[in-house]
Amino acid sequence: MHADADPIADTRRWLEKAVIGLNLCPFAKAVYVKEQVRFVLSDATTPEALLEELAEELLFLRDTPAEQVDTTLIVHPQVLTDFLDYNDFLDNADAAVDALDLQGILQVASFHPHYQFAGAAPDDVSNYTNRAPWPTLHLLREDSVERAVAAFPDPDVIVERNIATLDRLGVDGWNRLLAGE
Known about the structure:
Layout: H1 7-20, H2 28-33, E1 37-41, H3 47-63, E2 71-75, H4 83-99, E3 106-111, E4 136-141, H5 142-151, H6 156-179
Parallel strand pairs: 1-2
Antiparallel strand pairs: 2-4, 3-4
Helix pairs in contact: 3-4
């Protein structure tokens, strides 16, 4: 990580310009404008330390009213920068949800600068739907997800629309967007 890097500012810009700006997640804008998104900059340098921090944040989210914090983004720039290591860690994240008896209450979604869907080429533009500037664990409330999905007539259309949007934008367009051009 560069000394002058600001992972939270980069993540906010990604959320504003890509996730909300391109409408990749039609549910993100409402919680963002209500300031119900918690941004956490992790100082973890080992997967074990990150797992500990994840557990703390899961409990924080469980114990905090949704009106105050509906979702949390844990940005962890110093650990799991390799996508395969990150992807392997997601099993530990799910195990933490289970161990804290939060299955059906909270879930962990994943974003990474090198995100790659199974079967997709590394440079496939569809991967960019899950690419964030820094490795990020997204903690979501199951009931918020269910309400959002119920309010959207056909959630499968979101994935198709996102891929079409990114096909039009292209990788260069994506990079320019996040650079603020």
